[in-house]
Amino acid sequence: MLIRLDDLAGPEIRSLLEEHLDNMHELSPPECVHALDLSALRGPEITFWNAWSHRKLLGCGALKELDAGPAPLRELRIPLLRTVCRLH
Fold first, then answer.
1. Prediction pTM value
2. Domain count for the chain
């Protein structure tokens, strides 16, 4: 698995984030949807990563820096219906 910083420009990550927002709006009341859209994730206070295996996007995550202290995990998502690991 390769984890790397992401500039949110690739079609795979845009598709995953669109799926994420659609899913959140489908399953949650509007006041409970705290997921950030693409433009918000591009903010200077956000660091965004993705994880890949064999040219397939496994998921993504983001940290939002509020100050010089600890930063909260802002987003974490894997594609729906995707197996990330298997136990043998």
1. 0.73
2. 1
